[in-house]
Design a protein that fits this description.
GO terms for molecular function: hydrolase activity. It comes from Pochonia chlamydosporia 170. This is Carboxylic ester hydrolase. It is an enzyme of class 3 (hydrolase). The chain has 587 residues and is of the alpha/beta class. It folds into 2 domains: 293 residues, 3-Layer(aba) Sandwich (Rossmann fold); 216 residues, no CATH class. Helices cover 33% and strands 14% of the residues. It contains 18 helices and 16 strands. It has an 11-stranded mixed sheet, sandwiched between helices. Strands 1-2-5 form a 3-stranded mixed sheet, with no helix packed on it. A two-stranded parallel ribbon has the order 6-7. Helix 1 links the parallel strand 9 and strand 10. The longest helix is centred in the last third of the chain and has 26 residues. The two termini are 39 Å apart. The N terminus is likely disordered.
Length: 587
């Protein structure tokens, strides 16, 4: 296995002097000892590239480490990404041997310090990403926590992606090789729970945390085995995507016919395995095939081909059923989404992968998206369901996203924006943003409240530097704020930069407030406690659907201030999705 030390990753900045000798931090876990890195710039220790499992066999569930050693092993370089196919993997080493994690802690803490622990699970659609991504720089958050007098330990991890982590089909189901990526995460969380004391952390104070498909992963851990989490974590943070499995296939994550089709296509296109399609030998053939053949085939298949699977084991049931009867880990949650998520999810769903211009364009996209059995399950015709969707998501630009406040331009037939975005751009964004992100979040807040559990909801409403107004507060843009990455490390355009110095000043102040709230939740299971300079309310309220006449309240992050708001925007459409989600999208 080849490890590369990126001097600018996760708190290691180019020019930062790395000390060895007496300053080398050494810890001893159950299997043996590791030597990390001390950086004086942040006064932190890094333990990088620590294995949490045996080197995994392809398309097989990973196994726990069961050997020990006497020597001190180096933990000084980030591990390669797991193989994936997308821009987040460009420029990073990749390997099938990728099941490693990284620990960032304040330096010179006692192993008896019992610090709270935040486990970061990266996003990337379950088809790209990795723990070495410099945008996920845990040093800034750990530093912020120390300055607040609430020090934490940060951990990031890799897990298998695309077919390597989310293979479907009867063969994978029979072999127990489903949801491998989620099972990787679970094994990493178990390793952390067993060994974090050696780093000065508390196994009783672990919070799991993610964004996008990282949040989907957090959801999977909260719902896994019908909510049996065995005390592995005490809280969860989900940025954009908490509450269910993000829809990828018509019919949801029990679209068994499509999953089988994708498995057979993979086998068929790996030349040495083509003859095993439909036989009991297909999976074993893929496990032993030349990686170059597997890689060449997967790189040509659509990224969203591979989806989590309803396997009756790790994912025992539809999330709709689990939230309705309380089969989830009973832990506090902090969850939310960005105002204009749909600008990242509505694009390209029009005719021939284009934009939305007519009612028929929207209607066709929704019909292609919903379950083929939606009419049977609801007792309504598909046409009636489509009529309801179009009524609840009307062609009214002020009702779509981004709002006219965020982007004042009114789309007109044949204007320059309409040519590229589509006349019904805002309408499509509103529907698909709610389907992918917003309705799941509200459904979870309602369920947590119903079972007397604390939950906190936010809405991020900032169009960041470098993003055009027509995208608004789109997907992923809160990440730099949460990580307090105010230098824009690894961003093509610094979200906090630009010529508008007033914007930069306000954005940095907002990032400090948001990151402090996340730290408060990790430490206290409550985001309140930091002195908010711009908040119009003394506290971020616990979500309670009896507030505001049935809406509930959350916090909205805007550039100029924070404020408490009713959770009632697009309420009719979102509540319709909640009422019909299992039948419509199999979630």
């Amino acid at each position: 296995m080849k490890h590369i030390l990126y001097l600018c990753f996760a708190g290691l900045v180019v020019g930062d002097r790395i000390r060895y000798g007496d300053d080398v931090p050494v810890i001893t876990v159950k299997n043996g000892s590791y030597a990390g890195i001390f950086t004086p710039r942040y006064h932190q220790d890094f333990f990088l590239g620590i294995p949490y499992a045996k080197p995994a066999q392809r398309f097989s569930v990973a196994e726990r480490l069961n050997h020990s050693w006497n020597e001190t092993r180096p933990a000084a370089a980030y591990p390669p990404h797991c193989y994936g196919y997308g821009p987040d993997n460009i420029g990073y080493e990749m390997s099938e041997d990728c099941l490693y994690l990284n620990v960032v802690r304040p330096s010179k803490i006692s192993k008896d310090a019992q610090l709270p622990v935040a486990i970061w699970i990266h996003g990337g659609g379950l088809y790209m990403g990795g723990s070495a991504d410099r945008r996920y720089n845990l040093s800034f958050v750990v530093e912020q926590s120390a300055q607040m007098g609430k020090p934490i330990i940060g951990v990031s991890l890799n897990y298998r992606l695309v077919a390597f982590g989310f293979l479907g089909g009867e063969e994978a189901q029979a072999a127990g090789a489903t949801n491998i990526g989620f099972r990787d995460q679970r094994l990493a969380i178990e390793w952390i729970h067993e060994n974090i004391r050696a780093f000065g952390g508390s196994p009783e104070k672990i919070t799991i945390w993610g964004e996008s498909s990282g949040t989907e992963s957090v959801t999977a851990q909260v719902f896994a085995y019908n909510g049996q989490h065995n005390g592995l974590f005490r809280g969860a943070i989900g940025q954009s995507g908490f509450g269910g499995i993000i829809p990828r296939l018509p019919g949801g994550y029990n679209a068994t016919a499509l999953q089988q089709e994708h498995f057979d296509n993979l086998v068929r296109n790996v030349s040495t395995c083509a003859s095993t399609v439909g036989t009991p030998h297909a999976l074993e053939c893929l496990r032993n095939a030349d990686f170059r053949d597997i890689n060449a085939t997967l790189s040509q298949m659509p990224a969203l081909t591979w989806s989590p699977v309803l396997d009756g084991d790790f994912l025992a049931d539809y999330s709709a059923n689990q939230v309705s009867n309380g089969r989830f880990a009973r832990v506090p949650i902090l969850i939310g989404a960005n105002s204009d998520e749909g600008t990242g999810f509505g694009s390209g769903k029009g005719p021939d992968g284009g934009s939305f211009n007519t009612d028929d364009d929207i209607r066709g996209a929704i019909q292609n998206f919903i379950s083929p059995t939606a009419g049977i399950k609801t007792g309504k015709s598909v046409d009636d369901l489509l009529d309801q969707a179009l009524y609840l998501y009307p062609n009214i630009q002020s009702a779509g996203i981004p709002t006219l406040k965020t982007w004042p331009h009114v789309l007109q037939p044949n204007d320059n924006f309409t040519q590229s975005l589509g006349l019904q751009y805002r309408r499509g964004n509103a529907f698909f943003g709610d389907v992918y992100m917003h309705y799941l979040r509200r459904r979870a807040n309602l369920a947590w409240s119903r079972y007397g559990l604390p939950s906190f909801v936010y809405r991020f409403d900032v169009t960041v530097n470098g993003k055009p107004e027509f995208t608004g507060a789109t997907h992923f843009q809160e990440v730099a704020f949460v990580f307090y990455n105010i230098n824009g490390d690894a961003y093509t355009v610094n979200p906090f930069g630009g010529d508008d110095h007033a914007y930069s000043r306000k954005a940095r102040a907002l990032a400090k407030e948001i990151s402090s709230m996340w730290i408060n939740f990790i430490v206290d299971q409550n985001p309140n406690g930091y002195q908010h300079q711009s908040c119009e309310s003394d506290r971020w309220p616990t979500f309670d659907p009896t507030d505001g006449g049935g809406a509930g309240r959350g916090i909205v992050f805007e550039l100029d201030h924070l404020s408490v708001e009713l959770d009632d925007w697009r309420a009719e459409g979102i509540n319709w999705l909640i009422q019909n989600d299992l039948a419509l999208i199999g979630n």
